[in-house]
Amino acid sequence: MCDRLRMIRSELSMTQEDMARIIGIGKSALSMIETGRASLSERNRNILIQTLNVNPEWLESGTGAMFNEQFPERTFLKGSDRPVGSQSVPLYNVEGTAGLVPLFLDKASRQPVDYIHIPNLPKCDGAIYVVGDSMYPLLKSGDIVLYKQLNDINDIFWGDMYLLSIDIDGEEYITVKYIQKSDKEGCVRLVSQNVHHADKDVEISRIRALAFVKASIRMNSIR
């Protein structure tokens, strides 16, 4: 098991800090697992399977492919979320709608490119394709995120993942980030999953649209 954790990190070009952050333990605890002085918990094992698409058979015995060919949808639920048995979530082309702001303001006039049907998700307002690698390896460019629109910055849960539209010199910047409290007054801190992207403090007044990421779908190219 310890060798296989190092193999996963090597394959994904991840440091111990990267891996520890994803599975929610300290670097020293991960080091102990990788050197055989501690065992991988069932919770950590499930995170590797669900978040990094690791093949559970390979993780357990070393047989088969390291990663599954297809990645299932992932949900990011709150205790207050109530699953909806069946819903049609509209998938939008953000470029075609000229950004999140007009999409959020007038969803009725925007034509979806398709609809997504996944049972037992919490209520979602829409879905868009991810652009960029700031949330890699949790999300990669081309994946789909399903979101619930928020109207008040005070409704956020610190540390959770959000879809945002930010005003930068009069232009809209759309991104998916973790939102954390900032030491700077009137700001929030945007944190990436990708350690090569630095954290950034952004003035709350520059956030033009905000949505909680409820689920994501990994898009794989099978050749």
UniProtKB/TrEMBL annotation:
Domain of life: Bacteria
Keywords: DNA-binding, Transcription, Transcription regulation
Signal peptide as annotated in the record: none
PROSITE patterns: HTH_CROC1
InterPro entries documented for this protein: Cro/C1-type_HTH (IPR001387), Lambda_DNA-bd_dom_sf (IPR010982), LexA-like (IPR039418), LexA/Signal_pep-like_sf (IPR036286), Peptidase_S24_S26A/B/C (IPR015927)
Keyword Chloroplast: no
Domain HTH cro/C1-type, residue spans: 5-59
Name of the protein: Helix-turn-helix transcriptional regulator
Natural source organism: Alistipes hominis
